[in-house]
Amino acid sequence: MAQGPGRAVNRRSLLHGAAAGTAALALPGVAGVTEARAASRVADAPALARAGRPGAPWGVQAGDVTASSGLVWVRSDRPARMIVQTAATESFRNARTWHGPLLGPGTDFTGTTALHGLPSGEQIHYRVVLADPHDHRRTGEPVTGTFRTASDRRRDGVRFTWSGDLAGQGWGINPDLGGYRIYEEMRRRDPDFFLCSGDNIYADNPIEASVRLPDGRIWRNVTTEEKSKVAETLAEYRGAFRYNLLDANLRRFNAQVPTIIQWDDHEVRNNWYPGQILDDARYTEKNVDVLAARSLRAFREYFPIRTLRSDRGGRVYRVLRHGPLLDVFVLDMRTYRNANSPNRQPDDRQGILGAEQLAWLKRSLARSRAVWKVIAADLPLGLVVADGKTDFEAVAQGDPGAPLGRELQIAELLRFIKHRRVTGTVWLTTDVHYTSAQHYDPSRAAFKDFAPFWEFVSGPLNAGGFPAVPLDGTFGPAQPFVKAPQRANVSPAENPQFFGEVDIDGDSGELTVRLRQDDGQVLFRKVLQPGRVGQPGS
């Protein structure tokens, strides 16, 4: 990646202080199951917290950062007023003060403060101070973080990582393995931001204290009361989002790398769709719409997302503009979809995006002047993801012929991109719990009215690995790379976890994708050229 003189070295040195500050806030006992359970129970009940000054043991995070703005998040251990200070240096000399919301039980003691008028392409140091709402002089220890605003100078380039699927299939925070180690590797990569492609929690996967692996070893989990069953109540969904913040690696990462967050099915329940009525004995609440509303409220409380506001509702899909090189189009392939089915209907107006989101995406792509348009999808396009014996969960259904079902909506979108000559589209996703690269080309496809493009898959962050699924020939995918286990639900102790990395060079405009595993090893690399409607294959 092209960068200004000494950018990487200087930035890492600046980040070191924030890492140390966040590490100092580690929750007590996180290295052991019993101690962590006891600590989390105390921390999960702010109303019963000991008398004293407000604290933020869950750390801080920033999100939806642009060239001039960003959001800062915190959770307090009791009622408090959120105050944010920003500065150009760690000394916080000439700091600017931002008065945030009052944190209380209505938002599970979480809050987000919007920052505006920030300088472009600069390292922003911030600290969150929590003040007693009845005595502003009584404040807790400041919690520090940092992020870099998007640069309006093309030559600075862009680097980001992406992945998804955290604490899935019962594989939670394992202190014997050092917790969520993949976050430490991604932090070392020093990305400008992290794109999480969904399944931030597994609300339908309880976390047990221990699991016996096939080779006889014991996998140990940090556990909490809320994660001992499937999430149904608002408190249980909140507890599921809070569980991941028990991991010190994730808290350090959050303090240094801003996020772009989307959601998928496991924020609510596996393969859910609007209007679904569950046939699952684990649930007393069978109406998925009720569960989804509760989860979305907790999701909004625990992540800084500019289009989701407690006073306005809002939506998950949005576009984040990251300077002249990159726009990120965040999709929601869950909230507006039709029911899972055999997916072979000859007419499908609703599809997987819904009509309103599809119209928004077309308009936004057509208006974009960025060199690269990353379409952040929470599900793959040409991979056949089944839901039971007869129904399908994603876009494809295994019929290699003309588009049917949800494929019709994607065909309409791809046709629009070609005819409006929208250049530089790249699809990124996760969901299937392995890593792969797909190139789509009309010369191989049943549907031919589109320009070639690439789709890259990476994940999970910390979940079970699963075998590769078949390809659907409708849009002509070829798969030059795939790495997946041979059996289902392989634990992170037995199978690498995966993330992807994107570098956009400021001089040439080239976009390089690297598919990595959790030790940083590069498994696959692809360089794409700017200014093209379509991209050649391998």
UniProtKB/TrEMBL annotation:
One of its GO terms (molecular function) is alkaline phosphatase activity. It comes from the Bacteria. Pfam families: PhoD, PhoD_N. Signal peptide: none annotated. Residues 59-149 form the Phospholipase D N-terminal domain. The gene is phoD2. It is an enzyme of class 3 (hydrolase). InterPro entries: Metallo-depent_PP-like, PhoD-like_MPP, PhoD-like_sf, PhoD_N, Phospholipid_Metab_Enz, TAT_signal. Keywords: Hydrolase. This is Alkaline phosphatase D. Residues 166-515 form the PhoD-like phosphatase metallophosphatase domain. The keyword Hydrolase applies. PROSITE patterns: TAT (PS51318). Its EC number is 3.1.3.1. CDD domains: MPP_PhoD.
